[in-house]
Design a protein that fits this description.
two-stranded antiparallel sheet; 16 strands; about 450 residues; Phosphorylase Kinase, domain 1; Transferase(Phosphotransferase), domain 1; kinase; alpha+beta; 2 domains; non-specific serine/threonine protein kinase; Ser/Thr_kinase_AS; 6-stranded mixed beta sheet; membrane
C-alpha cells in the first residue's frame, strides 16, 4: 500500500508570468496525454497546501481527513488506492506494447483489472483501464497529480472522464482512469491515418454538445471550476463517441466572494488560451469559453489551432479565420471542412459560425456562458433542412398510380389574375352560364 495522500496543491504567484513557448505535440499514437503547458516551471517554495473541497468527511477509511503541518485535505471516498505492484502487473510491467501515449509529465499505459475487485488481471481479460504514470521528481507533475485527484475524485458527470483510483509510493505517482476506446477528438480531426475515421457533421455536433455540457457542469457546480486547458486532445471519446473531458491537471477553483476572476501564473496551451489570461494572468470562468470557441473552429474547419506548416498569416487559426466567420461566402469556401461538405444546411453553418465568433470575443464579458453555448448547439443539431423539390420528384409524384375505384387527380393550371384563362376553361364557363339562363 502506498503512502497516505498528502495535501500539496500548486498555487503559483501571478508575478512570475513568463514568456510563452509553443506547446509540444504528443506522439502519433496518443490517446491520452499529459498536459503540455505554456509555462510549467515551478519551485518547491511555490507549493502550498490547500483543501480543494470543504464537504464534511464520513467515518469511512478512504474518506479520512489526513492532516500535516501545512493543513489538510479531504480524501475522496470513491477512489481506489492501488499499490504500485498491482499496477505493474496490470500493465505487464509497463511494457512498451501497452503504451497509449506520452506528454510533458509522464506516460499513459493500457492495463487490465478485475471489474469488481480492481485487482490486476491478465492482458485481454477483465476491465480495460488507462494508467497515467508521472515522471518521478517533477514538482509540476506532483501538482497536476494532486489536482486530478482533488477534482476528478469529487466531480461526477457523464461528460467527464472517470478517475477510478490512484497510487503514491515513494516517488511513484500514478492515476487510473476509465479507458476511452475511440481516443481523442484531436486524432480524428487531424491525423490523416486512413484507419482513423473522419467525423461527419452530425458526429462533430454530438461531440461538441457533450464537451460543452461537461464544461457547463464545471462552471455551474456549487464550487465553480475553471478547467483552464480546453483543447481537442483533452476531449476523449467512448465506444459510442460520447465526449468526455479529461486531464484536470491545470483545473482551478473559480472566483469567490464576488470576485470576477482569479489571478495565477499563465499555464495552458498555445492557440487555445484566452487573450486576457495570457496578457494579465487573470483567469475568468469565461476564459474556458474562449478555448471552446477555438475547438469549435477546429471542428468546423478541420484545421489545427496552431500549425507551423501553414503559410505565414495562417499559422494561428483564430487570427486567420476569425475575421472570415461573419462572411457567408468565405465561410463556405475558406473555412468549412471539405470532408463534411453537403452534410449541413446553410442555416446551421451560419449559426455555428456565429456561435464560434461569440465564444472568441476579446472581452470575456461578451462571451456566452457554456449553458448558453449548449442551448445553441442543441438548436443547431435539431435543424433538419427539408430537401428541395426537383423536377424529377415532381414528375414522379404526378405519375403515381391511383387506387382501384379512385379517380386520378386532375391538376389544373394555376389561374393568374390579369391573364385570360385558357380557351378550354372559357368554353366551360360559357356552357355553365348558358345552362343557368335556360333554367
Amino acid at each position: 500500500m502506498g503512502n497516505c495522500l498528502r495535501s500539496f496543491f500548486y498555487d503559483p504567484s501571478p508575478s512570475s508570468i513568463a514568456n510563452n513557448n509553443p506547446s509540444t505535440p504528443g506522439t502519433s499514437n496518443s490517446t491520452y496525454s499529459s498536459t503540455t503547458t505554456i509555462d510549467v516551471s515551478a519551485t518547491s517554495s511555490s507549493i502550498v497546501c490547500k483543501s480543494q473541497f470543504s464537504e464534511a468527511a464520513s467515518h469511512d477509511e478512504r474518506n479520512e481527513v489526513i492532516s500535516n503541518a501545512n493543513g489538510q485535505i479531504l480524501e475522496s471516498s470513491n477512489l481506489e488506492k492501488f499499490t504500485f505492484a498491482d499496477l505493474k502487473r496490470a500493465t505487464k510491467n509497463f511494457k512498451s506494447d501497452t503504451l497509449l501515449g506520452e506528454g510533458g509529465f509522464g506516460k499513459v499505459y493500457k492495463g487490465w483489472i478485475d471489474q469488481k475487485t480492481y485487482a490486476p488481471s491478465k492482458s485481454g481479460s477483465g476491465m480495460v483501464v488507462a494508467i497515467k504514470k508521472l515522471n518521478s521528481g517533477s514538482m509540476q507533475g506532483l501538482a497536476e497529480w494532486q489536482s486530478e485527484v482533488n477534482f476528478l475524485g469529487r466531480l461526477s458527470h457523464p461528460n467527464l472522464v472517470k478517475l477510478l483510483g490512484f497510487c503514491w509510493e515513494d516517488k511513484e505517482l500514478l492515476l487510473v482512469y476509465e479507458f476511452m476506446p475511440k481516443g481523442s477528438l484531436e486524432n480524428h480531426l487531424f491525423r490523416r491515418n486512413p484507419n482513423i475515421e473522419s467525423f461527419s457533421w452530425d458526429l462533430r455536433l454530438k461531440i461538441a454538445i457533450g464537451a460543452a455540457r461537461g464544461l457547463a457542469f464545471l462552471h455551474t457546480s456549487e464550487k465553480k471550476v475553471i478547467y483552464r486547458d480546453f483543447k481537442a486532445s483533452n476531449i476523449l471519446l467512448d465506444e459510442k463517441y460520447n465526449a468526455k473531458i479529461s486531464d484536470f491537471g491545470l483545473a482551478k477553483l473559480g472566483p469567490s466572494g464576488g470576485e470576477s476572476h482569479v489571478t495565477t501564473r499563465v499555464m495552458g496551451t498555445y492557440g487555445y488560451a484566452a487573450p486576457e489570461y495570457i496578457a494579465t494572468g487573470h483567469l475568468y470562468v469565461k476564459s474556458d469559453v474562449y478555448g471552446f470557441g477555438v475547438v469549435l473552429l477546429e471542428m468546423l474547419s478541420g484545421q489545427r489551432a496552431l500549425d507551423w506548416k501553414r503559410p505565414p498569416g495562417q499559422r494561428n487559426l483564430v487570427e486567420w479565420l476569425k475575421p472570415l466567420l461573419s462572411h457567408k461566402k468565405k465561410l463556405k469556401t475558406t473555412i468549412m471542412d471539405s470532408r463534411i461538405e453537403g452534410q449541413y444546411s446553410s442555416k446551421a453553418m451560419v449559426q455555428a459560425a456565429q456561435l464560434t465568433l461569440k465564444c472568441l470575443k476579446a472581452d470575456p464579458k461578451n462571451r456566452p456562458s457554456m449553458k448558453e453555448v449548449v442551448e445553441v448547439l442543441e438548436q443547431i443539431e435539431a435543424m433538419k433542412e427539408k430537401p428541395k423539390a426537383t423536377k424529377s420528384t415532381l414528375v414522379s409524384s404526378l405519375s403515381k398510380p391511383h387506387r382501384r375505384g379512385q379517380q386520378p387527380t386532375q391538376h389544373r393550371p394555376l389561374f393568374i389574375p390579369g391573364r385570360r384563362a385558357p380557351k378550354y376553361e372559357r368554353e366551360v364557363n360559357i356552357r355553365k352560364i348558358t345552362k343557368k339562363k335556360v333554367k
